[in-house]
Amino acid sequence: MSALRLLARPRRLPSSRLLSTTVRRAADPWPLPNTPEHLASSTSPPDAPAPTPLERPGESSTALRARLVYQSRKRGTLESDLLLSTFAKEQLATMDEAQLHEFDKLMDEPDWDIYYWATEKKAPPERWADSEVLDRLRKHVRNEGKVVRRMPDLS
Fold it and tell me: What is the pTM of this model?
């Protein structure tokens, strides 16, 4: 046999050799958002007490708006960051003092709770059932105008 034929012949693996040495993986410890597993594992129980907000005596409306813009952008999860930062950019300028304080209280809630309440995957607790700010956030999240949204600049 010529050398070319020897090189062109496919090599056969012995039948006792495994083709893969990877270990079988366990279930993913980080379920994807909007799955039943994630919804069950990442939201607060319905009877959980409301978070205690930090007292900020003497904070001006301008400082409150600036803080809320920053906090809505830096939540910790990209999903919440995108929803809340675009909402803040569009809505904070038109909110009165009471609505600003209500939005501030909403921002004290856990990220995934806000996300699932806003996307209407989970009913909010009684303290948020009649919230005008949460209703406005839900309308924003529905995106009825099919606007392509991106994270707004911080300037």
Answer: 0.75
